[in-house]
Structures are given as C-alpha cells and as structure tokens.
Amino acid sequence: MNIEPYVKFPFSKGSALVPFIALILVVMLLTTAPGRAAETYSRSDLVRFQNRIIDYRSRINPRFKKKVRPKTRLIIVHTSELGLKSTLRVVSRGKRFENGRTTPGGHANYVVARNGTVYRILDKKYRADHAGLSMWDGVSNVSDISVGIEFIGYHYAPLTTSQYASAGVLLFILKRAYGLQDKDILTHSQIAYGRPNRWFSKNHRGRKRCAKNFDRTRAGLGPTWPFDPDVKAGRLTPDPMLAQVFYPVPGAVVSTEKKVPQSLVSDVISKQNSAWAIAGEDYDAPNTVYVLPGGKTLAGDRVALNWGWDRVPAGTKVLLNQETEQVREQTKSIIKIISGRMTAWSHAGGAYHAASTIYFLPSGRILNGRVISDWDDLPPGTRLLVGYKGPFNVTKSKTAYRIAGAKFKDPGTIYHIPGRGPVPGNRVPNFSDLPKGTGVYLPIAG
C-alpha cells in the first residue's frame, strides 16, 4: 500500500545527512511520550477516516443557537451512560427532565459508537454545551473553550478497541487543527465540579464520574496532568476516588482501566464504593435506580426518605439514566429484555460477554455472551438470561424431567420452544408435547 506521510525529508538516499537523521529519529522514538506514536497517520488514512464520519448535524434541535468558540484550549471526553440511539437523540435534540424542563440539544461535537463509528453532531468550531458546571486551571465554563466528544458506554464499563482506534485518529486531527498537546485532552470527571453537599462542605471535584475509565495509552495519548491545578490552588476540594485514578501518589501503580482497583470500576455498592463514588452528582437523581440484593428497587430521589443513605446495603446495584418502573419490572423477571435504556450491561454488568449469559435475538438466533462483541449492537427486544447453562435438548428419551429433575416446572428453568422463544417452566402448557428442537436452560447456581 502506498502511504503518503505528512512529513517528508528532502534528502536523497546518498546524502551524508541520512545516517545522522536516522540516528536522530531513533533517539526521538526512544524518548517520545507514548501518545506520539499516533502521529504516524498518512494523509490517505486521515481522508478515509474523515469520509467515514456520519454527518448528524441536520438532526440538531432548531432551538439550539450555534456559536463559534473564540478559542479552543481543551478537548473533553465523556462516557454517555446510555446506548447509541438514546445518546444520539439526547446530544442532538436535548435532554428531558422529570419536572418537564428540556434543553435545546447541542451537547457534543462528536459521538463515538462502540463499533468505532464516529458521528458529527456539531462542526468542531461551534460551542457544544457538554461540560456543565466546570473549571480547569482557574477557567470556568469549560464548554466555552473545548471540543466535546461522547463515547458510547458507561464509566464503569470498558470502552472498546474500535472506540480507541477511532479516538486516536479523531484526537490527532483535533490536536493538529487547534495546536493542542496530549495534556490538553481531559475527561469530564477531571474538569467538572460540584457545589457543597452531604459529602463535601465546599466546592469540590467529583460531580461527574464521566470517562474515568478512559485509557489514554490505548487512545495513543501521553500522560495527563500530574496534579489537579484547581485543587492545588485551593479553588476546589479534591475527590479522593478521582485523585486515586488520575493523580496517584509517586510510586503508586498507574491507574488504567486494567489496573484500577475493582471497587473503582464497579456499579455495585460496597464498603469502598459508595453511591457517590459510583454516580457522582446523579446519586439522588430520579432516573438513577438502586436495585437491592433482594430485587427491591428505588429511584435516587426516594432513597433518603425510604431508606436513608447510611442504610443502603452492600451489593446494591446502581443504574444510571433509567425509568424506575421499567427496572422494577425487569428485576422481577428472570428473562430480561433489552430496550432503549436497559442495555445488556444494565442487566448483566460485566457478565454481558460471559458464556453463562444467553441472548435470544428477535431474529431467532441464540448466542452466548462469549461471542457478543458489543452490547450496544444488540437489537431492542433481545431477551437474555444471566447465569445459565445450556441448551440441553429435549428428545423422546431425554425428557424435561430427566434434564431438570424435580425443577422441570420451576419458573427458573427456561425452555426455548421454537416459534415461542424463552418460556419459564411454570408457563409451559404441555411437557409431553414439546416440539422438536426445544432446548432447556438451567441456572448455574442451583
């Protein structure tokens, strides 16, 4: 393949300077920061990437008023905490709140899907309303000086290899366009701040957990700042959890998505992982849903009244951007259903790609999580079982009773009946007449 690099040296092969230049290049490669390797994209690579960006600008809410940024000093990366369709709708059309209030959209310049596809929501020159209450190095309203990029995913779930590949090219283009360096690329969790609350008596970091799982190395970037300038200057109180992720003490293990302690990448409450550590300012939002170990659910704005924050038990799962009633119905059912907000990750967490998570697609295909490359590609209406083994096929000699024993009629024993999909054992009308091809799925834990 003919690659046309952006930098060419005007020296012939016979030039006496060639060995010297080669030596200089070797030294540069050995001493360059990790992100520098990303700057090997050829012109054709960049043109191809630009041509593949999906133009979503026509979908922007007509209420949104475009405003050119007078200066661009930063690039801010976010995790959307939603699936692709919901994210595209929110960033382009706007947010809708429980009290009826809406926003006019324009909440990102770009969206990067989990398969690596990039959507252009706003031209990079326009101000996107993405950072909210924010500060960096003494400058407030970071949306005024930054490009905003949303990565589809959750801050406690890994981003995909395809997303990092697209991020590398997109960030290279934006850095070059605005003369920025690697350290000028930050996460939303680094620049957002909050007003005093029950955890902090002063203005503080930690309002957002957004993109705290962003692995700079995989995006071809060098290190972030070694400290938080606003905390160092006394303008803000530090958030201990985020400080551990972004600014570890000298000699500590560098925090990447592979090395961060499990308590920092989980959506489950524990002694080390509070509601605040998981959800940030959204801990008491009406669309943050708490699922207790026994299956009881409660919206974030009802927790203080019904339980009290000090009584939320370990093992409680925290789901962001959900509808409480929908979650409540889903927790009652062994057979889960994927919808706009209830993704495979919402149901199964990190087990979404385990062999023990079984997916029943609307097309009739049945797949286990091991062969699912991405939860965001699963169509709405997909059903799933978490923590199951099978199928064990029913035959004349291998009846449902022989497969499942006394639990063959149990609601936890699931039958996939051709033409009907997954059915709990207590809803199978006739076990003596199960059609050919019926498979039985049994819970692993019992």
Automatic annotation (TrEMBL):
<dbReference type="Pfam" id="PF01510">
    <property type="entry name" value="Amidase_2"/>
</dbReference>
<dbReference type="GO" id="GO:0071555">
    <property type="term" value="P:cell wall organization"/>
</dbReference>
<feature type="domain" description="N-acetylmuramoyl-L-alanine amidase">
    <location>
        <begin position="61"/>
        <end position="204"/>
    </location>
</feature>
<dbReference type="GO" id="GO:0009253">
    <property type="term" value="P:peptidoglycan catabolic process"/>
</dbReference>
<dbReference type="InterPro" id="IPR051206">
    <property type="entry name" value="NAMLAA_amidase_2"/>
</dbReference>
<dbReference type="GO" id="GO:0009254">
    <property type="term" value="P:peptidoglycan turnover"/>
</dbReference>
<protein>
    <recommendedName>
        <fullName>N-acetylmuramoyl-L-alanine amidase</fullName>
        <ecNumber>3.5.1.28</ecNumber>
    </recommendedName>
</protein>
<dbReference type="InterPro" id="IPR036505">
    <property type="entry name" value="Amidase/PGRP_sf"/>
</dbReference>
<keyword id="KW-0378">Hydrolase</keyword>
<dbReference type="InterPro" id="IPR002502">
    <property type="entry name" value="Amidase_domain"/>
</dbReference>
<keyword id="KW-0961">Cell wall biogenesis/degradation</keyword>
<dbReference type="GO" id="GO:0008745">
    <property type="term" value="F:N-acetylmuramoyl-L-alanine amidase activity"/>
</dbReference>
